[in-house]
Structures are given as C-alpha cells and as structure tokens.
Amino acid sequence: MPIKHFAPPAGIQAPPLSFAARVGDLLFVSGIPGFDEQGALPDGFEAQFGFVVRNIKRVLDEAGATFRNLVKVNVLLTRASDVATMNALYASAFGPTPYPARTTCVVHALPNPKMLIEIECIASLEGR
Known about the structure:
deaminase activity; CATH 3.30.1330.40; Enamine deaminase RidA, house cleaning of reactive enamine intermediates, YjgF/YER057c/UK114 family; YjgF/YER057c/UK114; alpha+beta
C-alpha cells in the first residue's frame, strides 16, 4: 500500500518529519505544536492551543479532511493546571459530539521549553 507524506508548510522550520502520512484510508498527523505562521511560539496556553488547532486544520485541509474525520487524538500538556482550560477549548474546537477518542497526558517537557501543548491525531479518509 503506497504511503503519501505531507511536508511542513513552506517557510516553517520543522524537525525532520512529515506533518502527516496517509496509508490507505488513515491519516496519521504528527504532533503539532502551537507555532504561529512565522514559527514563533506565542506566550500563554490559550494562544498556543489556538495555533495548534489552526495548524491541524491546515494539515487536514490538505488531505481533504475535517475535524469530523478524526478518530483518535493524543494531547500532550506540560502543566496539569491546563487540563480544565484545554477541555473547554477542545470541546469548542473539536465538537459537537461525538468527539474522537482521546488520550491526554501531562509530560515533563516538550522539545521546546516554551511549548505548553502538542496534539497528534489520526483521521479516517474513507471515501476520500
């Protein structure tokens, strides 16, 4: 089965990875941080969450998918104190129900010390 890779958008400094890879009807989206269009991390959890959602939407759009195609989401947070805020923002961004299956982990650190959140996900592209 051929694999289609989705490169980071032009101008974005990224580590050596594909933003997403499609295998059959599944799209695996790499962990997406909250970088803005210039590759900077804004201050504050809500701002970073907003850019994470926007960046995931860009990847899904390129693959012909939407948030409704998500089947599994993994959320990585660096602060447990952000869980309640994340849940409220998540409900707004990924709703209405039914939501995709989700795992939320609080981790010691992410690759950039300013990163407060990273989200990876899997989408079904059946029929696309």
